[in-house]
Specification:
209 residues, 67% helix, mainly alpha
């Protein structure tokens, strides 16, 4: 039976996960730029709803997941050390250059969120790329973002609000960026668009069985 999966615990056909190929670097850059534009567009929509935070309270964290997806997808597709971090930071830089309400601080958010996304893959030594790992990547990216916002946006709120916001942020990160990123990666693999990359090669191998 043919099926497309990206759940194999190990696929490193080109040596150490620390060794990047040119096509992988280019792909990570493309992911960062594409999602940077998407982040900018999403930010424009977000800031157009000034009453959102007041209406939803700490549950506003539920809308944060889309800003974390570049790192998750890059980590799943490329499977190299630094892939998730690089794409998330680049996406933040691109969206900053296009113009966001938060200016250069968006890059700081990208750094801490990218570090969180990267950590999930590092925990498993860049050997596992299952949907739970993707969900963990999105969740840890959210934790990274929360840690930064603790000192910037959240100081004026009480602990109950902060914990509620953290929970909402993590849920959104795990589901939207994590599971959503895993589904998008699987869809890309089915099209053959990433056959030259580890995730695409794994899908092709399973299809051949």
């Amino acid at each position: 039976m043919n099926s497309t999966r990206i759940t194999s615990p190990l696929l490193r056909p080109h040596g150490s996960p620390a060794r990047w190929r040119t096509i992988e670097l280019l792909t990570a850059a493309i992911i960062g730029v594409v999602f940077g534009v998407a982040y900018w567009g999403y930010s424009s929509t977000y800031t157009a709803l000034p009453g959102l935070k007041a209406l939803t309270g700490p549950f506003v964290g539920l809308v944060n997941g889309p800003w974390l997806i570049a790192g998750v997808i890059s980590g799943l597709v490329i499977r190299r050390v630094g892939a998730a971090f690089f794409a998330e930071v680049l996406a933040a830089v691109v969206s900053t250059q296009l113009g966001t309400e938060w200016g250069w601080t968006t890059v700081i958010s990208g750094v801490v969120q990218g570090a969180g996304a990267e950590l999930a893959f590092a925990i498993f030594l860049f050997r596992r790329f299952t949907w739970p790992v993707a969900a963990l990547s999105g969740a840890l990216a959210a934790v990274g973002g929360f840690c930064y916002e603790w000192f910037t946006w959240l100081p004026g709120f009480d602990l109950e609000y902060k914990l509620g916001y953290l929970g909402a942020f993590v849920i959104s990160g795990a589901l939207v960026a994590g599971i959503g990123g895993w589904v998008l990666t699987a869809a890309l693999a089915r099209t053959g668009a990433i056959d030259a990359l580890p995730a695409g090669q794994e899908a092709a191998r399973h299809n051949a069985v």
